[in-house]
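Milestone M4 deliverable, item 7.
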Amino acid sequence: MNPISQRLLSQQLICPQFDRPEEVVGWMGAVQAQDHKGMRWAVAMRTRKPSLIAFEEAFNAGRIVRFHLMRGTWQLIAAEDYWPFINLCAPKAIAVTWGWMASNRISIADDELCRIREIICRIVGDRRSATKEDIVQGLAERDIRMDDHRLSYHLRMAEFAGTLCSGDLLPLRASYALSADKLPALATMDRDEALMRFARKYFRHSQPATLDDFAWWSGLNLSDCRRGIALLGDWLHAEKWHGREFYLTDDARTRGFQRGRCILLPPYDEYLISYKSREIVLHPDHTHRAHNNSGNFWPVFLLDGQVAGNWTATGGRVSIDPFSPDFTPDPKSLDAEAARYLSISSTCFK
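Output delivered:
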């Protein structure tokens, strides 16, 4: 087993298999989306011909949606997965969010939650796509005022309820639409079907990965994660590597590794977020350069699949900061990756 090359291939970071952004998001199951610019690059770079215009079209058409879901954080989800994954993941996400509210000494009664949600739905429905500022204004017109923190919890709970999802793509701000208006109704899927679908998408994009990795990424209980793996049956098999048990599919891709390849990852990329243990690709001595203990992740570049340093793009130029001189990429490889990023970044990254 070569976990680095297999992960690069499974995550579509080398030899990508898809042309359309919604195909990538559907393959991944979910794509972390805290960073408004980075989420677009995370998807575009996994297509054969990266295009942020194609991403915007898929996003505005509702083939991809952005909202809070797993672990109470932002994700991109394909339209086909929205309703089954909401039903599967929302109960745990709601429980986590109530805990955050309690720690921040914020209490929202059920009657307030229902009343404000109904008003927000009317505001969003009237505009088709509304920003938080639009919602604040609409509430104020009804003589309702609350601080930003409290409103954010109301919006998040509406997302967990399957009421709100993303509206039109804006440069640096979130917008909201009614889920019922933007996403087609699908046939009801029972919990085991949804769990099996969820587990299948995780392991095919993250393999090789462990049970603990799946539990971290999904935010589900360990019992649910074990159940999801069991439901997949012979589709998954386990292999030992350095004393740990990893799950893979029999048809996992193994050919396509490109030695010396430099890859620019956005912050919060699934190449790191998908795993609880990241030491396979990120040396513990360099962890603080990739993310902190508060859950903030920074842009990093890969060299032969290993996290090798940080990067920034300013003024139409990409600059790198390797963790050590040994992690300096070949100039040709860096220039090729920088050109790939810069050729599309000016389209929407303003």
